[in-house]
Amino acid sequence: MSSGRTSPYAIGLTGGIGSGKTTIANLFQEYGINVIDTDAIAHQLSAPNGLAIPAIRQEFGDAAIAPNGAMDRTWMRELIFSDSGAKQKLERILHPLIRQECEKAAAMATSTYVIFVVPLLVESGNWRERVNRIAVVDCPEQTQIFRVMTRNNLSQEQVLAIMRAQVNREQRLAAADDIIRNEGDLSAAKKQVYELHQQWTGLAKAH
Ligand code: ATP
């Protein structure tokens, strides 16, 4: 049945760790575009009184919930480290809720198109089907490593381990309808954002 409002034209913005997804999404926000960040939603879902808390408690027990009512992230990280099935159990709880909250946010959007920021978009068949275009934020792997080592105070090995759990640069670029090169000077990225904003506005209006 129709909800009375068609879902807005949707861009899926992705990129490897540290590629600059948030930085680029913020530039689109400056043009008034509604940005829906799946990481932020996942965080809210498992914050105190978050929608995922009852299901997390039921699946993992009281130990999974910290005294403040949020998911105990340290406890969960340790469990996932020692029990590979736990990650899938948590994802089975979170993923449908993330999707539901994204659709709620999209239905309330006021901009010509919306941007979903989805770090593992290329890895997820569901998301690829949901969006009208896939935009990849790209930079050399050395730059990703440098940025994340600096920002998160991690070793090169730790950053590489995260990168190995994601698709590689080539696979990600192969899935892209649009590529935003975010290397070096941010003014170069701003110019690409301006051009894509024009293009996507036109596509969304014609949709
Ligand atoms: P994550 O996958 O970890 O969420 P992300 O893809 O959202 O990361 P950002 O958080 O936007 O990436 O950027 C990673 C780091 O690199 C940040 O510290 C940011 O300030 C910096 N950064 C992003 N783009 C540039 C740029 N063009 N020049 C210099 N630094 C940048």
Automatic annotation (TrEMBL):
Q: What is the catalytic activity of this protein?
A: 3'-dephospho-CoA + ATP = ADP + CoA + H(+)
- GO molecular function terms attached to this record: ATP binding; dephospho-CoA kinase activity
UniProt cross-references to PROSITE patterns, sorted A to Z: DPCK
Pfam family for this entry, one: CoaE
For whether the record's keyword set contains Cytoplasm, the answer is: yes
Q: Its Gene Ontology biological processes? A: coenzyme A biosynthetic process
Entry GO terms, CC? cytoplasm
Q: Does the keyword Cytoplasm apply?
A: yes
Locations listed in the record:
Cytoplasm
> What is the protein's major site of localization?
cytoplasm
Write down the EC number. Answer: 2.7.1.24
**What Gene3D superfamilies would the database entry show?**
P-loop containing nucleotide triphosphate hydrolases
Key words of the record: ATP-binding, Coenzyme A biosynthesis, Cytoplasm, Kinase, Nucleotide-binding, Transferase
State where ATP binds. Answer: 18-23
Pathway field of the UniProt record reads:
Cofactor biosynthesis; coenzyme A biosynthesis; CoA from (R)-pantothenate: step 5/5
Question: What does the function comment of this entry state?
Answer: Catalyzes the phosphorylation of the 3'-hydroxyl group of dephosphocoenzyme A to form coenzyme A.
Its family remark reads: Belongs to the CoaE family.
UniProt cross-references to PANTHER family, sorted A to Z: BIFUNCTIONAL COENZYME A SYNTHASE-RELATED (PTHR10695:SF46), DEPHOSPHO-COA KINASE-RELATED (PTHR10695)
Q: What NCBIfam families is this protein classified in?
A: dephospho-CoA kinase
What is the name attached to this protein's record? Dephospho-CoA kinase
In which organism is this protein found? Undibacterium jejuense
